[in-house]
Amino acid sequence: MSQSLRRMQYAVRGEVVLKADKLAAEGRKITYTNVGNPHAVGQQPITFYRQVLALCDLPASCGVDHPNASQLFPLDVLERARELRGIVGKGGTGSYTNSQGLAGIRKHVAEYILNRDGHSAYEGDIFLTNGASTGIEFILNGLISHDHDAIMIPIPQYPIYSALITKLGGRKIGYELDEELGWTVTEGELQRRLNEAKAKKLNVKGMALINPGNPTGQVLQRKDLEMICRFCARNGILLMADEVYQRNVYVKDRKFISAKKIAVETPGCENLELVSFHSTSKGLIGECGRRGGYMELHCIDPYVQSQIYKLASSALCSGVDGQLMTSLMVKGPAEGSDSYTLFVEEERAIFQSLQRRAKKMVDGLNRIDGITCNQAEGAMYAFPRVIIPQSAVDAAEASDQTPDTLYALSLLEETGICVVPASGFGQKKGRIGFRTTFLPPEDDLEVAIGEMARHHNFFCQKYS
User: Fold this and answer.
1) Domain boundary residue among 302, 330, 358?
2) Beta-bridge partners for 418
3) How many structural domains compose the chain?
4) Which 8-state DSSP code applies to residue 417?
5) Per-10-residue mean pLDDT for the chain, 464 residues long?
6) Residues 211, 165: one domain?
7) Is the peptide bond between 421 and the residue preceding it cis, with omega within 30 degrees of 0?
8) Could you tell me if 408 and 249 are in contact, meaning their C-beta atoms sit under 8 angstroms apart?
9) Global pTM?
10) 8 — phi, psi (to 5°)?
11) Cβ(155)–Cβ(176) under 8 Å?
12) Domain of 180, in residue numbers
């Protein structure tokens, strides 16, 4: 079999999660905080989205054309469902679509990007995907052609990047985010890592940027984004902007700014090759199972784009329900329509709850002696640092484990809380910690923080 596949690791569903699944099968109550899966831990779906999707999937005779439809669904829901059914066509949601995605929905995405950034987007540059991860794989497939091709990735990073680069036989060049500076990256760090790669005769073709950050939760400021875009443009590096958490910004002194907007407005970045990714799995939607999303290509050579289309064609098309959800994500109910008030109320409730839980989780972790955690400015995770006795480090090494894996397995066995060791995100050697979501309900979160504190004391006493 492929040795690249054997070497591939995906930590968010790795050793600790496998152990959690085994314990759950044996009857243990497990709190899964290893993955950002909002509906699985209690977040409710937004009514407008589900109503429109239901009417798109139902046969017209018992849905949009039913005599009592207007008594069961708001008028704007019926109108939106009819619009989307028209875009899908006579084959309905059970048919294949164009490999790039339905043109009408790509038009909706282009309008959203224009409204967000103030700069034009074109439906021909947009690909609808099965979540952001499919788009990322498409681009990496196109970039990596030789075992000396390299991709720069943030450290810590979301493991989909390291997993796919390894599977495709490429090289990973980690650039370290500075925890002391709120998980930012400096130009000096980027240049140093690029120089090291060149010294090893590696061909750096792309760079991944995650904003807001996963697992670190930082929201990059404009000056940081300008520096990154100029660095990539100057060095002929394609920038992959993972922006799936763009709605998840919780602090008043930060706001999301897209890499596309920066690229268009920053001198020296006129020819920056950029691919941006967005998803229906995160934000305030949390519809992970729909597998919806898109990628936008900016300043990509037409021939290269045709090859990406060929790659998308080999997968036939993204899921139609995911495409419909993408349309709903970028084009909600109109202000003043029948569904608008409830839609705004549901979104506000989800956002405010996430904002409270982000603060509650970080504050709770920082109250535990021996654990520190930067503020979660955005995304859905806390990424604390853990101080443990040297004897625990020695025990982990003796059992051929990383110290944070030993800690995470102990936390799981003692409390039923499943987290991901920091080493799974490529964190630098010597930094011990884990990633946990703050998605569980607020009462459950209070209990989890208390259990984490109890476990930390237990663990340190065990190895003291």
Assistant:
1) 330
2) 32
3) 2
4) E
5) 60 75 89 83 92 93 89 94 93 88 96 96 94 88 88 90 88 91 92 95 95 93 96 96 95 94 94 95 90 94 89 86 95 95 96 93 94 93 92 89 90 91 80 87 88 93 88
6) yes
7) no
8) no
9) 0.91
10) -65, 135
11) yes
12) 94-330
